[in-house]
Design a protein that fits this description.
The chain is of the alpha/beta class. It is built from six helices and five strands, in the order H-H-E-H-E-E-H-E-H-E-H. Strand 1, helix 3 (about 45-55) and strand 2 (about 60-65) form a beta-alpha-beta unit. Helix 5 runs parallel beside helix 6 (about 145-165). The radius of gyration is 16 Å and the shape is globular.
Length: about 170
């Protein structure tokens, strides 16, 4: 697994995934992963799918855009849907997951809704990963300088902190 992934490390986004996630998931055998958000580049999908292929796992990816032809693999099931279309998604996904990765609508209320709905589907010791919660890349004079994204990500980060402080006996936050 590591060799296949290391070839993709030069990409900044892929390196972020690897550095932050790989060391946490490396011991999961037969992983069942639920991913919200694929995107045109599909870096997280590629990352998780490589892991599933090498560890006899299954990746379920959900996106409003139809990326069903992005990968051909028996280890991947694409679901063309909004992440909050619970009724549709529930008919397709299994009951439990090792990893849930949220990278769709980056707004605090949406993150909270998705987190509370899907968190109970994690197996004990599982990981719920939420992407794009740092506002630092978007502050004034930074390379991404974008006021809306700065405020939005900071609000999302603070909402995650609120959820954590209300539930700190139930999970760890890193």
């Amino acid at each position: 697994m590591e060799e296949a992934i290391l070839k993709k490390i030069p990409d900044r986004h892929f390196r972020k995934l690897y550095n932050m996630i790989y060391k946490e998931i490396v011991l999961i055998k037969n992983p069942i992963i639920l991913e919200f958000g694929v995107s045109q580049k599909a870096m997280s999908t590629d990352f998780f799918l490589d892991y599933c292929k090498l560890n006899n796992g299954m990746l379920y990816s959900v996106d409003v855009n139809d990326y069903s032809k992005k990968f051909i693999s028996t280890n991947w099931k694409f679901i063309h849907s909004r992440d909050d279309n619970f009724y549709k998604i529930e008919k397709i996904i299994p009951e439990r997951f090792n990893i849930i990765y949220l990278d769709t609508l980056h707004k605090a209320d949406h993150i909270e809704k998705i987190f509370y709905y899907y968190y109970p589907k994690l197996i004990e010791g599982g990981f719920f990963l939420i992407d794009d919660t740092s506002w630092l890349p978007y502050v004034k004079k930074s390379d991404k300088d974008h006021f809306y994204m700065e405020r939005n990500n900071e609000e999302s980060f603070n909402r995650i902190l609120e959820i954590f402080y209300m539930n700190r006996d139930n999970f760890d936050l890193e």
